[in-house]
User: Fold this.
Amino acid sequence: MPASLVFLCARKVVSDHGCALRSLASLPQELYPVLFKAAFLDQRPLVIGELVLRWPERVLSLTRSLRACQHCCLDLSRDWPSRDCLQAVLLAVVKGLRERDRRDRNALRVLDLCGVQDEGGRREPNTMGSWFRTVALSKACLEARGRRRGGESTPKRRRGVSSPAVEVEVRADLFVNGSSFETVRQALRGGGPLRLVCRDLRAEELSTQRTASLLDMLEPSALRRVDLRYNNLGLAGIALLLPRLASCPSLLSLRLLYSNVDVHRPTPGMEAGLRELAGGLGGLLNLREINLTSLRLSGKLRLLLRYSAIPVVLKRPECHFAHVRHLHLKLSCCMGLFVVNACFTFFFYSKIYKVDTQWFLVSNAKINE
Assistant:
């Protein structure tokens, strides 16, 4: 069944903004999620804004609201989100923060935008990718902060009447690069009624100092995935960032892609840097995935293992060691990677190799060391 009678009626209601505005006050709040999905399907941003302003629950999760449900089998969460619809959600949240009677009209305290599709799926011309979404979220936080400061200084506030501060937490996956860094930095620092919390971070083409300052501004307990690529970190930069990542108890995935690490070109302090790298990786106790694409570790893997002390079991990771002269390890869909007391075991096809005291089970690998 593609859609229920309830969903068909919801599409009819949201088809006209004036009709929807008149009807919302008399409709049961249990229908708001159905109306929200219907408005997203038909791209009715004005109706979406009205629904968000009157949202009856404390949490509004975009992906959960757009998934297939009993009233509509369409899974809209797999498609790229409409730019106008997302903007309508953000504008309504900011607008709701400044309304005096907000506690009576809107219970929303958490806006969850995590997992919004921005790779694959169906993409229409008027969609919003992760970079634009990050910038839009940051600007919404700055706008809400500015409006609250302006409202606090207005002379129209009655003497002796204090309006309780209402905050909304916005959970999102952020994509930061050089052109958006300053906007995101301003949104993350200084507080405000709209608080930005990052779950998955992707940072590209940032200096080590900017990457470090960005990690310092994020909430450690919420960070789950970190993807750093094209940042030219080098061994020293990675060693500087790993202690910051170790303070994130929920970190499950770390990707260090194209970080300009090449042990084929010996430099002063390289061995000490590898020790720091191994020790830093050992501090990521809950890690389940590590991707080191383009880090040329040929000839130094033993050293990395020797100084690593990771007392944890990693399940179903994705580990990549770039193709090098003596050793090629590419573990993209392995069954499991167990790391216990610096002993690495790679589960792949049927070949077992022992290097020093470490056992390797690897596919398509040439070990000449």
Summary: The longest strand covers residues 194-204. The two ends are 61 Å apart (CA to CA).
